[in-house]
Amino acid sequence: MYNFSAVVEYDGTDFKGFQQQPGNVRTVQGELFKALGILAPGFSRFSYAGRTDAGVHARHQVIGFGCREALNIYRFSWKLNCLLPDDITVKNISRAAEDFDARKSAKMRQYSYYVVNNSCQSVFLKKYSILITRKLDICAMREAADMFTGVKDFTAFCNDNLKSGHNIREIYSCAVKRFSGELIEFKISANAFLYNMVRIMVGTLLEIGEGKRDAGSIKKAFKSKIRKDAGRIVPAKGLFLTKVTY
Amino acid sequence: MYNFSAVVEYDGTDFKGFQQQPGNVRTVQGELFKALGILAPGFSRFSYAGRTDAGVHARHQVIGFGCREALNIYRFSWKLNCLLPDDITVKNISRAAEDFDARKSAKMRQYSYYVVNNSCQSVFLKKYSILITRKLDICAMREAADMFTGVKDFTAFCNDNLKSGHNIREIYSCAVKRFSGELIEFKISANAFLYNMVRIMVGTLLEIGEGKRDAGSIKKAFKSKIRKDAGRIVPAKGLFLTKVTY
């Protein structure tokens, strides 16, 4: 058995999320399985770092899979991308350790969320960001973002109803950056994330930037562990999985 | 008569260029005329800074137009963008001088061309860049790019067969920048450009980066004024009009 890892990039717009689903549902995993099934029949032990939701994009998702035969990586990669649809690309295929599992072996995941804070949306960003016309207070959002870092119970900041185990996660960093063209990036890295966690964290920060709540409300939500004490959930289309490290 | 200027952003993929054409041809100007005709019937003196070709994009095209009535700019802008299709946005509408003409008044135009120099194309850049898998020599292209600057006769670097006047243009700067993800940007600013000029300049630089010609061949083409002494023309989809100044 030969083990491989690869980076997968996809435009989530036309996918019902990463994970394969029963029925006639277009997913990233489904498309990968179709192509891998042709080029590496009998591939096994498929794993992936992050189960992104419907509409969420990835610049850097990581997958793992096993093959019975050694692959000519360059040719395999070329053929795989020829078979895959236009909105998925597989990059950096390489041999992985015997026990590599894209999810279990991951040490850090990073997501970015994009907001255009202007009177109108950009033609090139409208599929990849949300528009907020009300002027956002960047400084207030930055200060509040710091309150997310560290080891905390994120029960209030997720939609995980079927809790298996605990909701404690470690946020390594949570940064708010402003780019030209009134583009704002929320960049969050953690050991792992709960269901909808990034989108609820960003929604909470936006409500602070809009002056609808103060930073103290984050502390309150951490304490109460009640979902409605946190902010709104923002749409999937602004979210990108941008890095996974091992 | 009230004169206005505005910035127009568009994804050129599904347009047969900026300029209106007879028949059932989708152009940026055609779409703007439809929307302006509804919101500002009888608008006049329409002008635009650069006649971009089929498939060329714009982050910053400038238009000018006259109205018989003063506009509530904020409301007009909002309505205009509601009427326009998803691949055009109008921004920064403002009052302009009596004699403003988006083309004649322009002092500088800037274009950027994007190349992904990698073994595979990026999902997010494939509509906005070309892929070159052969490793490009950035230093050689940078050195050669310098040879374009200044006041020169660009006859060899354009496809203008119907010459009206001369082919002398002044290039203010021609820079080659490398970004992460193996993205290369060619950024060129000039007083004005000839037909296909940017795409032929970039094609020539790429042939230098690929080792197929040397920088001396640029000098030769300037001297001979023969189109075939310059390099190939690169596809439209990598080209953006990025700035116009007045």
Based on the model shown, name its key terms.
Alpha-Beta Plaits, alpha+beta, ten-stranded mixed β-sheet, homodimer, about 250 residues
Helices and strands in order, then pairings?
The structure is a homodimer of 246-residue chains.
Chain A: E1 2-10, H1 28-39, E2 44-48, E3 57-67, H2 73-83, E4 88-95, E5 108-116, E6 130-131, H3 138-146, E7 150-153, E8 168-179, E9 183-190, H4 197-209, H5 216-224, E10 239-245
Parallel strand pairs in A: 3-10, 5-6
Antiparallel strand pairs in A: 1-3, 1-4, 2-3, 5-9, 5-10, 7-8, 8-9
Characterise the protein shown here:
Two copies of one chain form a homodimer. Chain A is of the alpha+beta class. The first copy, chain A, folds into two domains: 94 residues, Pseudouridine synthase I, catalytic domain, N-terminal subdomain (Alpha-Beta Plaits, 2-Layer Sandwich), CATH 3.30.70.580; 138 residues, 2-Layer Sandwich (Alpha-Beta Plaits), CATH 3.30.70.660. In chain A, 22% of the residues lie in helices and 30% in strands. Chain A contains five helices and ten strands, in the order βαββαβββαβββααβ. In chain A, strands 1, 2, 3, 4, 5, 6, 7, 8, 9 and 10 form a ten-stranded mixed β-sheet that branches. The relative contact order of chain A is 0.18. The interface between A and B is medium-sized, with 24 and 23 residues.
